[in-house]
Specification:
Number of helices: 3
Radius of gyration: 20 Å
Helix content: 10-25%
Bound molecules: fe (ii) ion
Strand order of the largest sheet: 1-8-5-10-3-2
Largest sheet: 6 strands, antiparallel
Structural class: alpha+beta
Number of domains: 1
Shape: globular
Oligomer: single chain
CATH architecture: Sandwich
């Protein structure tokens, strides 16, 4: 058959990258972070209104946590991850990935985060401090909206290849960090952890990253 003689050459341009890092010694780090977040929350019970839905029990801190000493450990891990991404993507070595803003979100039962992007920065990320089963997956959606104009029909007997997905969800895992392009739309499903054993609050630290020139470019 003719198709057997044709060699398939495949290119995959314009990917939407999501990086995943597992932070070492996460249990002790997370205990310390939970205490620190609790103290921040006690000082600012109202919090701010962003992607969280306050009426549904989502608390969002102010965006300056990276400037507080008790968050120094997680700041170091985020910057180390940024360094790896810079190297992986061949970024200019005179520039370092630095945190512009960092905040915490605590989702109680039923709380969600509406779909949004993070304007004004390069990369954004989330670190899971507490993630009980059923606490709400994070979903990323394909930003190439023009592709909804004509959708392919997939073989129901096969799983569509990842490169064809238009949405992907990650189950939160305590001690894990995801870093994704700031332009990539994302949302968080309702916290249904209370319906399962060991339920409770979903606690995260989130951050925005940009390149910062460390010395004069050559
Ligand atoms: Fe976000």
């Amino acid at each position: 058959m003719l198709q057997d003689t044709l060699k398939l050459v495949q290119f995959a341009y314009f990917p939407s990258l999501v990086f995943q890092f597992d932070v070492p010694d996460a249990p002790s780090l997370n205990d310390q972070l939970l205490d620190a977040i609790q103290r921040v929350r006690e000082q600012d019970q109202q919090g701010v209104s962003k992607s969280n839905y306050r009426d549904l029990g989502g608390w969002h801190s102010k965006e300056n946590l990276h400037k507080r000493a008790e968050f120094e450990s997680i700041v170091r891990h985020v910057e180390a991850a940024g360094e790896q991404i810079s190297s992986e993507l061949a970024y200019h070595r005179d520039y370092a990935i630095r945190i512009g803003t960092m905040w915490s979100i605590v989702n109680g039962p039923g709380a969600v985060n509406l779909s949004h992007v993070h304007p004004g920065c390069l990369w954004s990320g989330v670190y899971y401090v507490r993630a009980p089963a059923g606490c709400g997956k994070i979903s990323f959606t394909d930003p190439r909206t023009a592709n909804v104009m004509h959708k392919a029909v997939f073989d129901p007997q096969r799983k569509a290849p990842k490169k064809c997905w238009t949405k992907v969800s990650f189950t939160p895992t305590a001690g894990r960090m995801l870093i994704f392009p700031s332009w990539l739309y994302h949302s968080v499903a309702p916290n249904l952890a209370d319906a399962r054993e060991g339920g409770g609050e979903r606690v995260i630290i989130s951050f925005n990253l940009s390149q910062q020139r460390m010395r004069s470019a050559r």
